[in-house]
Amino acid sequence: MMTSRERVLATINHKIPDKIVTELGSTNCTSISRKCYAGLKKLLGYDFPDQLMMNDFQISLVDEEILELLQIDTRGVPGHPEYFPQKKIDESSYYNHFGIKFRMPDNGLYYDMISNPLASMEDIEEIKKYIWPDPNVLMTVKGCRERAQKLKKDNKYAIVGDIVDSGIFEPSHYLRGFENFLMDLIADKEIACYIMEKMLEFQCARQDLYLKEVGEYLDIVFVGDDLASSQSTLISPEIYRDLIKPFQKRYFDFIKSRTKAKLMYHSCGNITPFIDDLIEIGVDILNPIQVNANDMDTKILKSRFGDHLCFCGAIDTNQVLNKGTQEEVREEVYRRINDLGPEGYILCAVHDIQADVPPENVVAMYRAAKEYKL
Fold first, then answer.
1. Per-residue 3-state assignment (H helix, E strand, C coil) for 46-68
2. 210-224 pLDDT, tens digit each
3. 52: which strand partners?
4. DSSP class per residue in 83-108
5. Are 96 and 117 in contact (CB under 8 A)?
6. pTM of the complete model
7. Distance CA 178, CA 169 (A)
8. CATH number for the domain including 84?
9. Disulfide engineering: 205 pairs with which of 48, 135, 161, 170, CB 3.0-4.6 Å?
């Protein structure tokens, strides 16, 4: 029988493992919402205190005992973005280190982004006056080396690195405002490229700090940067290749110069038109495989891209995990394994397990994966 790490290494190198690889909690896009996790802990008889990987989206850090019980094959070494300075406004709202304002609605499940610091600026000179936060906050990597070293010494699980909020395109439109930034890509490319250049500098500095601590220990390194909605890509292939892709290539080259880990890339939605491009610039593993989006048929994806790409995710959170019976969850698990696996497939939910998912279905998903006969 393989160890978990051997199983993951086989899978991401397109070899058949002894069991289906499972992932939970190693990245901010493959974890579980605070509300669902509270129910899961109660179901499994644990009373661990809350620990969050992301405050704004209320994403939990998953406790080791839960990971062991569910037979998860990966372990994360998350950076700590909560150590970036924040300015509290009141009990339900704050500004983050970029000056983006977040607010928790009444009875809300996560914080909404409600203002963008560059949104009202009209020209490049005004935008150049914006003072970027310092990326070199040592506390954001506190304890990372020690955790990575211990996991490497134990040599039991595959080690996954994630500094959270690690993209180029997505955080650029967080700063500028979504509609403004998309307009810039068409009508004022100088502004769009300036913001992405500064974001690239910021993220490379963060990755440099983090990977100096843990790069030698990682098996997988994670970057999240949404480029699509469930209907289509957010920008045309032409704009992507002309403006976005060159920044991503420089970024991925930088990361890969500092670690031998495989690169896992996250984008929700119908990402199919960009998959060949992503493979070309160094993506090894694609997440989350949003199966309810257009043109994301798992069988077709495996046929077209399976020789070059490992898939991570694909268990539907739109209809099955949240609304299905445990038997329907099992059927979903088997369907996705048959389509995407057994080699080159890491099983987990489409994005984080959401608040409306019954904890019983979480257990059913991971149990079905490990019971699947290869």
1. CCCCCCEEECCCCEECCCHHHHH
2. 999 999 999 999 999
3. 60
4. GS--EEEETTEEE-TT--EEEPPTT-
5. no
6. 0.97
7. 10
8. 3.20.20.210
9. 135
